[in-house]
Amino acid sequence: MEFILDWKSIGSLLATFVFIRTAIHDFLPPEVYQVLKRLFLNIFTSLQPKISILIEEYDNSYNNDIYDAVQLYLSSKCFSSAQVLKLAKSRNSKNLTFSMDANQKLEETFEDIKVKWSFHCVEKKSSGLGYARPHENRYFELSFHRKYKHRVQSSYIPHIMEVAEVIKFKTRERKLYTNRSADEDGRLWSSVPFSHPSTFDTVAIDPALKKEIKEDLMKFVNRREFYSRVGRAWKRGYLLYGPPGTGKTSLIAAIANFLEFDIYDLELTAVSSNSQLRKLLISTSSKSVIVVEDVDCSLDLSDRKKKESFEVEENEKYGEEKRWWRQRSHNGRGSNSFGSTVSLSGVLNFVDGLWSSCGGERLMIFTTNHKEKLDPALLRAGRMDKHINLSYCEFNAFKTLAKNYLEIDDHKLMKEAKEVLPLVKMTPAHIAEIFMSCEDDAEMGMKNVIDEMKRRLTNADEEDSQVEVEQPKEEPKKEEDPVAEYRNEEHAGKDGGDSVDSVAENHKRETETTLQPSSVE
Ligand SMILES: Nc1ncnc2c1ncn2[C@@H]1O[C@H](COP(=O)(O)OP(=O)(O)OP(=O)(O)O)[C@@H](O)[C@H]1O
After folding, report:
1. What is the rounded average pLDDT of the residues 323-339?
2. Is the shortest distance between the CB of 431 and ligand 1 below 6 Å?
3. Of ligand 1's atoms, which has the minimum distance to the CA of residue 252?
4. Burial class (CB in 10 A: 0-12, 13-18, 19+), 92
5. Which residues of 349-363 are buried (b: 16+ CB within 10 A; e: fewer)?
6. Whether CATH 3.40.50.300 fits 177-300+336-389
7. Whole-number Å distance between alpha carbons of 143 and 48
8. How far apart are CA 132 and CA 486, in angstroms?
């Protein structure tokens, strides 16, 4: 009975409500009706204290940056509070990532704002399109009391974005990009995490040169305002030159590690045209080192004047039209001698760097074993800001190698090494190889390396004395001859005067041509 009465009262209440609503709707002016409606809605919603924000993985099929930031932010929080976690590590990556499992919840208080996070995965129907989107709708739900609405928007969300940026930077994995194998799936660059162990501590070059390079790099990265004030692209060009095995690649890795930059290893022979070169460069990121190794071998960038005089000679010999045919048939249609249509002007445009104004700083490093083969246009200041000569091993570099490989600062054989080293051409790579083969035995390492130096010295003696038989030369003054001094001390009674002379000649020749310590021009 009571039940029937209740229903009756509900029924009459509803009837009254409908009557009042119709009366209001029919008799009140529409403006007043709208104001009342809004008031009613406000009262109704304020009775519900909780509001939620949904942050979906994709926003109109584009990656949602806020979702990524929240994911990073929560991965740093969820370990302490969520009950079920997911742990992942991508291949070749050194970072472990924790994340919340579906429907897990996490609560936190930021300042005095209490918020709740939950993670959801909802299976979705296939779109029928071929591309690889996940079959789940993934989203985070952020819930909080409505009184915090403005503060969540003005301080909590920006706080999340800031924390995520810091985490991203700390766990950032630098990459080594290469354009060699990138074409297979349509990408311009393929990448792997960059983790080369070479640093300025391990690279064996003259300490003064090391200091100079480091200071130059620091000056470069700290001069954003300067570059923009003087209207120049924020880029710098280095040319590393010297014989093979003198540490050009090792120095590049040390520079990238020092600056914490990515490396783009640009293989010019794999670039089909100037426009592809432009595309490749535009797609590089800021804070990167772009490397072109062995530039003299990559493209025909040799001195234009020499080429021009060669062309004049060929014209005279064959007539212009015939020379043109000879080149075409030799090189292939319109391409240079390496089959690529990247030209010197394409490379010069790349070095001049209009493209590099699209973002932050970029360092370009070219290496060559034959600086003299490069076109002067490529070498001029503004294109190659620094020319760094890496040459045969000198004593300071030798000591760095001994410290790295044999873990010694000093040794009884060091004095002898210091005396013999300037008389022979040995690359750091060769010395490193000898040290490596001695597996931590410092005594053996030092002995083997000095034996090798002496062997080279003796071979040089023999070669030079053979030359002397054919072309006898004047004797150098004995008192000015450091080699003779060394040989007299070490080999008294073994070597005759002839070989001392030839060693002196050898020393003189090497000092003039190659035994310059590594230097910057
Ligand atoms: N200056 C150096 N400091 C430390 N290690 C060096 C140095 N030079 C050579 N090495 C050692 O020798 C190996 C070869 O050196 P690297 O590739 O850097 O020489 P490179 O000058 O780039 O040679 P190339 O001109 O043939 O490319 C490196 O793996 C490194 O271990």
Report:
1. 41
2. no
3. 18
4. exposed
5. bbbebebbeeeebbb
6. yes
7. 12
8. 72
Q: Residue 73 corresponds to which tokens in the numbers above?
A: 């932010």
Between the alpha carbon of residue 265 and those of residues 59, 176, 181, 182, 361, the distances in Å are: 34, 7, 12, 12, 16
Length of the chain in terms of residues written: 521
Instruction: Domain ranges for the chain, please list them.
Output: 50-123+134-170, 177-300+336-389, 395-516
Which segment of 95-99, 272-276, 422-426, 428-432 scores lowest on mean pLDDT? 95-99
Mean pLDDT for the stretch of residues 329-338: 41
CA nearest to 361, candidates 292, 285, 253, 249: 285
| DSSP E strands, 216-349 | 235-241, 262-265, 288-292
Q: Is 205 in the pocket of ligand 1 (CB under 6 A)?
A: yes
Neighbours of 201 (CB within 10 A): 10
Which among 219, 241, 229, 493 has a CA at the least distance from the CA of 388? 241
* 3-class secondary structure, 429: helix
pLDDT tens digits, 144-169:
998 899 999 999 999 999 998 888 77
- Phi/psi at 429 (nearest 5 deg)? -60, -40
- Rounded to the nearest angstrom, the distance between the alpha carbon of 429 and the centre of ligand 1 is 5
Among 208-217, 242-251, 271-280, 423-432, the minimum mean pLDDT is found in 271-280
Assess whether pLDDT exceeds 60 at residue 366: yes
Residues 482, 476: Cα–Cα separation, whole Å: 11
Q: Whose CA is nearest to atom 30 of ligand 1?
A: 429
CB atoms within 10 A of CB 305: 10
- Residue with the nearest Cα to atom 26 of ligand 1? 244
Any ligand 1 atom below 6 A from CB of 248: yes
